[in-house]
Protein 1
Amino acid sequence: MSDFHRSPADSPFRHASEERDLAPQFVLPMVVRIEKAAPPARTDALETAARAVLVMLSDARSTGDGEWAEAVRDWQDARIRKVVRRARGAEWRRAEALPGITVTGKAAEVRVFPPVPLDGWPKDLARLQVSGTDLDDPEAPDAAEPGVPVLWLNPELDMSAGKAMAQAGHGAQLAWWALPEPERTAWREAGFPLAVRTAAPGRWRELTGSGLPLVRDAGFTEIAPGSCTVVADHPALR
């Protein structure tokens, strides 16, 4: 779970303590399918999680008078948090039966659900494990294709795949919020192409000073509060 930072004063991602900390707190549940015999590759899972967040944000049910819109607004009025849990077999089938959206990558499957109160998880999601989301890439991922938005991970942080999936989702969300409406529409209509890659140390220093959307973690799990985890490098934001 994390806080975020971007520059506009009215952003729900600001890191400083403020009135929204007094509001009821919500979380965006995400579940990754990890079958024992065929776990997804780490990068595939991270990229699929980031797209799942974008699909949820742009879904008609999440906006206007949509059935999830009030929950999404309440979530965004407070600190924006995401938690990734894992499921397989019957657990996954029960998760799929709940209202939400399943997004598929090359092999990864991630289901994202409407925001819920921190203490109000549906029982079929609450019983799922957060731990055990350690995933690997069989081979180093190729360089991102030219023109594709890249979510750059901090090379100095060691995060579980579940933690990194949430951070990639944060980065995608910051990019979404920062984009003008025409660029949002173009990205959505293209199917939200994106890549998640770990930056080289020198490149990371350049990125964090570039003015691009930057995720700072709240430090609830795994890493120190205020750690910079992701830079969202969308071509339209350069």
Protein 2
Amino acid sequence: MDEIRAERTEQAEILASLGEEQWNAPSLCAGWTVKHVIAHTTLPYRVKTAKVVLETLKSGGRFNHASDRMARRDAAALSTGELVDVLLANAGNPWTPPGGGQAGALSHDVIHGLDITVALGIDRRVPLERVKIVLDGVTPRTLRYFRADLAHVRLEATDLDWTFGEGEPLRGPAQDLLLLVCGRRPPRESLS
């Protein structure tokens, strides 16, 4: 919980410093701006679970479809200041994704934080202890969920003790390998 609180607080500080153009810039989440991402990550603090379930049912049981619709709606309705305030006010919120526990909540925050900072070119390195918690939760199911094709590849972090998979080694900073695992494109020069 301490790592979750710290991650959310640090993200709120970064977000509070962004200009309007940066809020409206594309993130690493396909089709979403930075504002859409934060509308998504703050959803559990603003909307009751029953409403999220109802929205998912309206989308034929497809959570990702419902999530996209809600993020777009909320990003249009809320100011950037309101979104930052919600994130900061909920830094210690005990929300966890279904079946994910606290490690899942940290993963959600770290991955979406990278979706923003990497896309905006902000040089932020997530503390390695946080990245390690997230990477330790990676399974073959994770790769399928994110549609990350890493068959016959062995990921090897160069800045902490972590490996995943079998095959041709691909080495790089843990944070950049996390992006790869989550179907995002890390800076190419960082991997070898």
